[in-house]
Automatic annotation (TrEMBL):
Signal peptide annotation: 1-27
Domain called TonB-dependent receptor plug: residue spans: 87-142
Organism of provenance: Xylanibacter oryzae DSM 17970
Keywords carried by this UniProt record: Signal
The protein's name: TonB-linked outer membrane protein, SusC/RagA family
Length: 946
């Protein structure tokens, strides 16, 4: 199926859905009319290769009932702001470890290719003991997404429609042409140069009388972008079945507009159609099976451009040119000019494309006349499984197997056009500016040929089989065991080696009378990235648990509903951070060899050693100890859990520079006998927590959830030989920011003369002065010190707060997130302005002799000014923030309205996402430079159930 008639499809789907809105939609409640908050239950949780009761989880695992969440919180992305509900997850990593594995129904898949409406449950496996059975590629955590399944009962259909608006939070603020020209003259004066722009020039640009002759180009104006753009979506879910066969289907279509309002770019848009079907079968009393399939069609239409609009907006100076000039500005008597216009293929709303010999193209002209393209992606996903009850062979024994194959293709089709631009030659007739002539550059050409590029295809094949054994002896000895063989392989076009993961797993579980628990898990992992003889390793894990609630002293407690303690010790082996194959082998090359010759004069290139051999290269290990607690108090009024963890990533690969003799490498010709070795060690220590309060006050049901994680990281072993010990990375955070310490501005020439000399260029008054850390009289890289944590793996402290209030048929939901303890540098083009770069509002605080005491920005310069633009405390800021991430109000129409009617319920909701940021640096945090802005999203939706 191909989306060739996307607008027709969109109108049919949305029209059919919206036409049903007055008659359809299911109230967002359970069958008993209670929200899940008011009706806690011991749900089954998907963990590695099995489902267990939530009360039997032994730490390192967090779970979210996504189906219930969707009833009060509509999302467009499966992992959107889940740090607001999940302890130990900061939005990008679990326990600070980057590189988690995502499994959808047990198969490695992308989280962005599954819709929130398809999801039943999401499980976060944080602890090493929780992921051990998945082998090498899950050693940094795994996210298990379980899709919805069919239920026994009559056919149920729900239809959901959403219409949303994206509104930009902020844009970078750049100076207009006149201000830019004035300040550029000032920068030249600071450099001892004469002015480039005359006072008359600056006046003409500031007057605004002729913005085409004297342009003041603003990429963020309404001439080019709309204030907002829309997203529309239609979704239908179907489920039902019997004891023998149950089915679930999800059909979804959405269309996403773009913010641009000119040229081909105003037709930019994204269309996605997906269809999922899940079937579960009970073939007989001993055999069950399932089949899951999903197909998605994804198209993105864009205007062709040789550069990115947003990155150009951050660099293109406002006085450079006016890209679109009205043809009415041309002298009616300029016959040659009008011949150009009459023959042009690219008159845009009465405007011709302007350019110069230097700017023969620009991003706005590209998006008007460069043609258009479409990125097309098709994905097919299929998995099936069988489960056999082998009780006739041995009571408690079962066998299950799963097979999956996913296939994805992508390509881009485009009509690539070339176009002419015209340089206007302006004259003034009787006080009016007119274009007396045009100079044509290049030619208009539309070949009509569709070009295909960027073709790619990916394939994933996955297979697993396992024996399960579950028995109870004398009613108190509960024994479970799993023996697993699993593996998958992903083939990426253009990549020689496939991504592979294969392992054998064994888990043994024992508990005595539901009080004392022991769990042993182990996996035999294999990797072709290592040399023969070192390709296999055993990953062991052990966990002990104590369910205090089942002890006599708490069994009948009216206060404690649940209390479990657990501790785990694990050592996992992984090749995930071994980036390439054959690193254990020596490498020889002529690519950058030195030229040499014999007496005959013929030049040859030397063959150089680039890497030494190390056949003893081994897996990288995750060694971890963790302690967990979970409890429920006062009849589920309070539910809480917490974990403490400490882990070491041991054996990180490097080519060391100090532990081998210096003669093992040469700079010219470039050669090295130094091999890759397992050397680096990283340590992370922290804790996470989650607390939920559930209380009904009168007719109002309240639920408050608070989650958080705090962790620290440390490089405990590094190959380094800094002259000054304060620069050692050993003992410092892994995400450490390093830079110079600012000491204000040089006040005058005497201050420059008496201060340490900068190795970053000649300094003048108004430049940034730095602290000479080692007292050698020179400011250089040896004066860089540790300045703070960068939060590359998530901020040190992550906070999430979610609030639900239910009153009769109304549900109010709010979600807040917070991040604290990290810093960043203001080092993009908005802040580091030099040469002929575009001037932002930041430069208004520049240093001058008159503003020396109040300046917030160094002196302006047309040079590179490397001294000023170094990472330092001058540019450092805190990224601490607290965000109101989501608010949604849902109204469930009274069910009595639909008695004896074919519609069983209707819900309507309105929501806002990414609403507010509270931070001392809010303006910086909300501003994107060189990329699309951050947007607030306002959505109106309705859900109807038949």
């Amino acid at each position: 199926m191909h989306i060739t008639m996307k607008h027709i499809n969109k109108n049919i789907i949305i029209g059919a859905t919206l036409s049903c809105l007055p008659f359809t939609l299911n109230a967002a409640t359970n069958a008993d009319g209670k929200d899940s908050i008011d009706n806690p239950k011991d749900q089954m949780v998907q963990v590695a290769f099995q489902k267990v009761k939530k009360s039997e989880l032994l730490g390192g695992v967090s779970v979210l009932d996504y189906k219930e969440l969707t009833k009060k919180n509509y999302n467009t992305y499966s992992l959107d702001n889940l740090q607001g509900y999940i302890d130990g997850w900061n939005g990008s990593t679990m326990w600070g470890l980057d590189g988690y594995l995502v499994l959808v129904d047990g198969v490695p898949r992308d989280a962005n290719n599954i819709l929130p409406t398809e999801i039943d449950q999401v499980t976060f496996l944080k602890g090493a003991q929780a992921v051990v059975l998945y082998g090498s590629r899950a050693t940094k955590g795994a996210i298990l997404i379980t899709t919805k399944k069919g239920n026994i009962g009559d056919l149920k259909i729900s239809a959901r429609g959403n219409v949303g608006i994206f509104a930009a939070k902020s844009y970078p603020k750049y100076l207009g042409s006149a201000q830019y020209m004035s300040l550029y003259n000032e920068a030249r004066a600071n450099d001892g140069l004469t002015p480039l722009y005359t006072d008359n020039d600056i006046y003409n640009y500031s007057s605004g009388e002729n913005p085409y002759r004297y342009p003041n180009l603003d990429f963020y104006s309404s001439d080019y972008i709309n204030k907002c753009y829309t997203r529309s979506e239609a979704n239908m879910e179907i489920n039902g079945g019997s004891k023998i066969a149950r089915f679930y289907a999800n059909i979804n279509y959405y269309h996403l507009d773009d913010v641009f309002n000119f040229g081909e770019a105003k037709n930019n848009g994204t269309d996605r159609l997906s269809i999922r079907g899940n079937i579960d079968l009970n073939l007989n009393d001993y055999i069950s099976a399932y089949i899951h399939s999903n197909v998605s069609f994804y198209d993105v239409s864009t205007a062709n451009s040789s550069s990115n609009y947003w990155s150009t907006a951050a660099t293109f100076r406002p006085n450079r040119l006016s890209p679109l000039i009205p043809t009415s500005s041309i002298d009616p008597n300029s016959a040659a000019s009008w011949i150009y216009m009459n023959n042009s293929l690219n008159i845009v709303n009465g405007n011709f494309l302007s350019g110069t010999t230097i700017d023969q193209t620009n991003v706005i002209a590209d998006m008007c006349a460069g043609g258009h393209g479409k990125y097309t992606s098709r994905q097919f996903q299929f998995d099936a499984g069988l489960k056999f009850d082998l009780a006739k062979v041995l009571k408690g024994l079962s066998f299950e197997t799963q097979f999956a194959i996913d296939y994805a293709t992508a390509y881009t089709t485009a009509y690539n056009n070339t176009y002419a631009v015209y340089t206007p030659n302006w004259s003034n007739y009787n006080g009016s500016d007119v274009i007396s002539s045009l100079t044509k550059i290049n030619n208009d050409k539309k070949s009509g040929t569709q070009n295909v590029s960027g073709s790619s295809d990916n394939q994933t094949i996955m297979f697993s089989s396992q024996f399960n054994y579950n028995t109870t002896i004398n009613k108190v000895h509960n024994i479970k065991a799993m023996l697993i063989g699993a593996g998958y392989q992903t083939k990426l076009s253009g990549t020689y080696h496939k991504t592979s993961n294969v392992n054998l797993g064994l888990e043994l579980d024992y508990n005595y009378a539901g009080k004392y628990f022991a769990q042993i898990g182990t996996a035999l992992v294999h990797s072709a990235k290592l040399a023969p003889g070192h390709r296999d390793a055993l990953s062991p894990s052990a966990t002990l648990g104590w369910k205090l609630k089942n002890e006599n002293f708490l069994k009948n407690s009216s206060i404690v509903d649940e209390l479990t303690l657990s501790a785990s010790l694990s050592e996992l082996n992984s090749d995930t951070d071994i980036q390439n194959y054959y690193l254990y082998e020596a490498n020889y090359t002529q690519a950058d060899g030195a030229y040499w010759s014999w007496a005959d004069g013929t030049l040859e290139k030397s063959t150089n050693v680039k890497r030494g051999e190390n056949p003893d290269l081994r897996f990288i290990k995750r060694k971890e100890f963790s302690v967990s607690m979970q409890t429920s108090l006062l009849n589920h009024l309070i539910e809480a859990k917490a974990s403490f963890f400490t882990n070491v990533i041991d054996g990180g690969l490097i080519q060391p520079s100090t532990i081998y003799p210096s003669y093992f490498s040469t700079y010219y010709p470039s050669a090295s006998f130094i091999p890759y070795v397992n050397y680096n060690k990283d340590k992370r220590t922290g804790f996470d927590f989650g607390v939920n309060l559930n209380k009904k006050v009168g007719q109002v049901g309240l639920s408050l959830g608070v989650t958080g994680m705090y962790y620290t990281s440390k490089a405990t072993q590094r190959d380094e030989n800094y002259a000054d010990s304060y620069q050692n990375r050993t003992g410092k955070p892994l995400d450490g920011l390093w830079g110079l310490v600012s000491d204000g501005f040089y006040s005058d020439a005497a201050d420059v003369a008496k201060s340490p000399k900068s190795s970053y260029g000649t300094c003048k008054p108004g430049d940034i002065k730095y602290v000479d850390q080692n007292g050698d009289g020179i400011i250089n890289a040896q004066d860089q010190v540790y300045l703070g944590k960068g939060g590359w793996y998530g901020s040190p402290f992550t906070l999430g707060i979610n609030l639900t209030a239910k009153y009769k048929d109304f549900t109010f939901f709010a979600l807040c997130t917070g991040n604290y303890g990290a810093k960043a540098f203001k080092n993009n083009s908005y802040w580091w302005v030099y040469g002929d770069g575009k001037y932002s509002e930041a430069v208004l605080g520049r240093w001058t002799e008159a503003t020396a005491s109040t300046a917030t920005y160094p002196r302006l310069t047309t040079g590179t000014s490397d001294n000023n633009f170094q990472n330092s405390t001058f540019w450092l800021y805190s990224t601490d923030r607290f965000d109101l991430a989501k608010v949604q109000i849902t109204y469930d129409l009274p069910k009595k309205w639909f008695e004896n009617f074919f519609i069983s319920g209707v819900s309507a909701y309105v929501s806002g996402s990414n609403l507010l940021t509270f931070s001392g640096e809010r303006k910086i945090l909300e501003m994107n430079v060189g990329s699309a802005p951050q947007y607030r999203f306002y959505n109106l939706g309705v859900n109807v159930t038949f």
